[in-house]
Amino acid sequence: MQKIDTIVFDLGGVLVDWNPDYVYKNVFEKQEDMKWFYENICTTDWNEEQDAGRTLHDATEFLVKKFPEHEKNIRMYYDRWEDMLGGPIHETVDVLNHLKHKTDYKLYALTNWSAETFPVALERYEFLKWFHGRLVSGEEKMRKPFTEIYELLIDRFKIDPTKAIYIDDNFRNLVPAKELGFHVIHFQSPQQFKKELSELIGDDL
User: Fold this and answer.
1) Pairing relation of β-strands 164-168 and 133-136?
2) Is 1 part of any domain?
3) What is the reported pTM?
4) Is residue 133 domain-resident?
């Protein structure tokens, strides 16, 4: 194995705790009603269109027109988006802090995130400025897991994937990275992540 010189982080679910439950658990009395809302109204597929560049306004109006009886809860999604931010995942941020003080690694972020909401997180969390570079899907009008955004990452930051690690909590996003030659870590907990990263880079975290 070649010496690792680059580490690429996903953000949401790895460094930043983001969860719509923080808003909707106070809206729906029953867990199954909240689950139904996510599966049928404000779905993952709908949200990912914003990650790929669709505006929050267009996304909201599209759903309101389609499901007018759910207008109040649909508008709440982005009206209260900041309340869905649960804060840093501190143990992972500590690892990032450790790595940024070393000269051995270039650190990058590759995130599926709306171009309109990412600046809110960037202002709130200083550690999002620690990277040598970042790709935000909504700014690039492309998103994971489509190969083109990984190829853009490689090209823009001159990354050799065989010397790089990519970390993501969504397994499907690891598949294209691995196919392009990255070493990958499926983030499931800070403890598991630290153990796997330590083994890959030969550094006690």
Assistant:
1) unpaired
2) no
3) 0.96
4) yes
